[in-house]
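Example record for the data management plan.
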Amino acid sequence: MATAPPTSRRRREQRGRLDGAYNAGGGHGGGHGGDDNDDAPRLAVASLALRSRLIVLALLALSDMALTDHDPGEGVARFDLRLGREGAGGSEGADSGRAGRPCFCLEGHACDNRGDARPPPPAARDRRRIGRSCAPPWDARSGNPPRATPRLLDGFYRILLSPLTKWDGARFLALAVDSGARLPRESARGSGARRRENEADHFAESEQAHAFFPFFPLCVRCLALCLTRSAPVVLLPSTFEGVAALSAMLLNLGCFVAAAIALFDATEALLRKSVERPDGERIRRASRLAAAHFCFNPASVFFSVAYSESMFAALTFWGHRLLAHSLGAASTAPGEGWGWAWAAALLPWTLASYVRSNGTFSSVLILLMGIGRVVYLLDREWWASANTDLPAWKRARHVLPRAFWEFVAHFTAAIVVASPVFYHERRGYAFHCTNGEGFAVLPDAYRPPWCLEAESKGRGFSLYSHVQRKHWNVGFLRYYQLKQLPNFLLALPILALGAMATACWIGTSRTRYILRRATNPDNTGTGQQQKQKCPSNRYVAIIDWAIFALDESVPIHGSRTEDTRFTKEGDTPTVKIARALCAPFMLSHYATLTGFCLVGAMIAHVQISTRLVCSSCPALYWFMASLSVAGGKNMHRILSGYSAVFILVGCILHPNFLPWT
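Corresponding structural encoding:
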């Protein structure tokens, strides 16, 4: 009989010792986390994420070169890189044609370093002739003459960066290049008579800009300015627009790698807390599967072009990573559950709300966790002491203040996470309805009609919803038209996956609920089992199960996360890991996934459901990983084939101005 080589045996023994040491140390949160065994899986995930982006960028460039752009119509924004054959621009400036060099910076753009760098007030925007004439060289202050980028390198940048500027990428890049693009132009501030002649065209540009949150364009602008001031000029595109597109690509590459690592860490941490006697190698394999499904997700195109999905996913997933590492330290005390990791998760989630409006769903997740802790306190503390000699008022004095402060803490955290959306709304009102410099309200003839509605409704008016409804017909069931049937078919796979994930979690929770009712432990601490039946009334049973699910959603280290009473005999470690990816304490994650699917199917343009869900919901990748683990190679091939088809078709359609998700 053949024996394994000594080297292989030594490797297996070493790996077993490392896994044992890792498990004994409690995973990442137990003082272990700085050795090579920890870093190697992360480096592998980072390498996979980077390679996936390079593949998508190469496919986008090849598709853009091979096919002619489709004409999407006049209402679609365009972004001119001014590289190579696309024209140098800026023929009116003093420095535009000197020595045959193209104009690097147009007047009024963020690279124009003359005078105050702040955006001009609305009344001054047209007088500055933004984007028409060439500004002085960006390195004029240093006295160094501008050096032209080699023409061959400019051609390479034009091929590489042009696919990144299509559809909404043009709007994001325009906001990054022009720091005052959100302000109404002077032509929109005309007299009331002139405004009424063509009211539909006034303020349209600045209103549409409000639909694109500012943090991603701001980061692109800052990175582009840093590159122009620090990187060798001969290595950069010859125009600031090209540098901005290059900055967006580099920023998205970094954010995507960070998002993949965060998803891997969050998955591994949750599995180590939810699986009894965890197998380190199997847990790492399941975590790598979740990260791999993200690296090659069906909306991969939008994580590579100049969209905000990569940054949003990085911030959202890092919040989940920090939360996952804090779950094991949670306790019933109102202050102890809010450790540094819990509080640190609020920062990336708050920034994510300033990247995309759907970042407010993190507030829903926080509120659900707060409600779960309140239910847990009432169930475990109040009812557990019901059989004791303590009077009701003493039990209330002991439990109710703790439950109240738990809810207040989570509600405050939810408001903090959603605060960037409120700030963005107020900022949009100030840009359009005031003089742009203070809070002096303009006459009605010089501002859009919705200003009166905003003032009458107060906080009940949402400029973001108004703009989406007015310019893109976004609203409840507004997209339910026969001509939109192809878009519903595009969104069907991701919506079906979301529905299956929700059904899987509900099924797991219902099974635990029925088993718990069948053998309910006595809360008096005697260890006796009390036989109970589920309520016969359907609605009462649903409410009872919902309370049970909220109670189970609180992970308490050492007792709540283990599944020993509900595992079946003969369950393999693989089955346990697949079940753990739909663990009861993931209620808020799967509820968020359900919410995104409902928004995509009923309110937003249904075709964006794929990128909406893929950039926001770790639970989607946990469910896909559980299918791959439990279903074997065939299921993994089906999921990989679905993603591959969407990536390939997206790389063909998107860069050529053909509609895609």
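Summary line stored alongside the record: Residues 276 and 563 are 7 Å apart (CA to CA).
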